[in-house]
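Limitations

Structures in this collection are predictions, not experimental determinations, and the ligand pose is part of the prediction. Treat each record accordingly. The example that follows, with iron/sulfur cluster as the small molecule, is included so readers can see exactly what is and is not provided: the inputs are given verbatim, and the output is the predicted complex.
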Amino acid sequence: MKMASAPVDPETLVAELRARAAALGFDSFGIAPADARPDLPAKLNAALAAGWHGDMDWMAETADRRGSPQGMWPAARSVIVLGINYGPETDPLAILGEKSLGTISVYARNRDYHEIIKGKLKDIAGLLARRSGAEVKVFVDTAPLMEKPLAEAAGLGWQGKHTVLVSRDFGSWLFLGAILTSADLPGDKPLPESCGTCTRCLDICPTSAFPAPFQLDSRRCLAYLTVEHKDQIPLEFRVPMGNRIYGCDDCLAVCPWNKFASVSREARLRARPELERPALADLVQLDDAGFRSLFVGSPIKRIGLARFLRNVLIAIGNSGDPALVPLVEARLDADEPVVRGAAIWALRRLAPERADSLRLAYLAREGDSSVALEWTGDI
Ligand code: B12
Ligand code: SF4
Ligand code: SF4
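Predicted complex:
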């Protein structure tokens, strides 16, 4: 986007952008030089070389551009990073003990934040282009940009030991979005890392996903396994998954900096009641139309019904609730192997004798070798 107009001085321009961001509902705003983090390509490449991205191939494919804003867009001079507070109204961990319910992580309990932020970012970028004549590019999550370290450079907070950006004002609950521009804007001062000796986020992780503080192996992270990972969830993570059916908030929720957090001002980011305490019994019965209508506008829609049912069936297998057995059996004949496999696992956990009695007839069926191991392997 390039539009000619009378340029204003950078300080006035930044004050205008800041005011516009606040008026649009952004809670945090900061600016960094586009070349503020020359350390990122090496760190990203080390993480990729270790294989921590799992099957998120797009991370490796875009590594050259992802590592630095100027790698992606050589004209970039400054990056504006914006944050929107999605602080929950209730303790997100409270529902983990209610085993017949599913836990959907806070960020997915209402509208997809990409949709909420995108229009607002474009608005600010438009203002910047009009007032400065500079070029701008807008990003929310999907573009190859490392938003957390850039947010750190722009003074929004610091990357905590859980790798997420911690804000002094909003704790762990800040969504990020970025605007790159060819304008040279005055940068904000980065904050010092303030985790100190705390290790709460590392200690609570149910799957030991942190090889070291400030580093995450996605392949072990439930946020990856329940959302990004398309195949069966590896056995070792199924029990630790508990009733988490979409994402995970454990490391975020225990951060002591959340004591400064507040409930999101954005109504579309506050939990919809039906997604705050959904019954696994209802979710496992969803058909395509029911899934689409329950998750309209939600990020959950993107994983599709099969992956969602896989997660729900594993949570059912962890529920200890025998009343759910008939609903599990109804999924043994699902078309998708990920659903069938998770149903078998859940049945074997809830009703091992019933599983034994069904196994032979099931395995005798032609062409169903894809889940044979689910019947006989470890659970
Ligand atoms: C890929 C991705 C994931 C992956 C990987 C997460 C990760 N930590 O990298 C998965 C699917 C696991 C994931 C999970 C979640 N995500 Co996510 N995710 C992203 C995405 C698209 C890219 C992140 C990325 O570049 N990762 C690559 C790694 C290498 O980068 P990094 O984490 O910054 O790594 C640093 C450290 O490793 C550090 N480092 C320090 N020392 C050393 C030493 C060595 C040897 C190495 C190798 C590295 C290293 O270097 C890196 C740079 O600083 C961003 C959006 C974006 N475009 O940035 C959202 C984003 C990070 N996710 C977000 C959210 C909300 C989540 C979840 C909370 C969702 C949930 N509740 O389920 C969880 C949090 C899990 C966690 N503890 O991180 C938000 C975080 C907001 C914030 N306040 O920080 C983002 C920014 C999206 C957004 N626009 O708001 N996510
Ligand atoms: S999101 Fe959950 S599984 Fe992933 S690192 Fe944090 S606590 Fe561990
Ligand atoms: S829980 Fe502790 S170590 Fe983890 S990010 Fe928060 S302050 Fe840092």
